[in-house]
Design a protein that fits this description.
Order of helices and strands: HEEH
Number of domains: 2
Radius of gyration: 17 Å
Number of strands: 2
Structural class: mainly alpha
Number of helices: 2
Shape: elongated
Largest sheet: 2 strands, antiparallel
Strand order of the largest sheet: 1-2
Distance between the termini: 13 Å
Length: 76
């Protein structure tokens, strides 16, 4: 029963995030254009490696998931 509720909450949060991004697309326009993101452009090819963006995303997701686990364990 707890897993079902958790999935519903996650789904609602994802829908709200999607609506927010549709209404305000400039919120994340900086993502992927950070210093340290590597781009190579040739005549017939492009290579894009979002190194800094992925490190930042990893740090943010680690903090959010750790807080969610601590809150979940606190009320368990």
């Amino acid at each position: 029963m707890q897993i079902g509720r958790g999935l519903i909450v996650i789904g609602i949060l994802l829908v709200l995030a999607g609506i927010l991004l549709l209404v305000f697309p400039r919120i994340v326009s900086w993502f992927g254009n950070l210093p340290g993101d590597i781009r190579f452009e040739g005549k017939n090819s492009r290579v894009y490696i979002p190194l800094t963006s992925m490190i930042l995303l990893s740090i943010i997701l680690t903090i959010v998931l750790n807080l969610a686990i601590r809150i979940y364990n606190h009320f368990k």
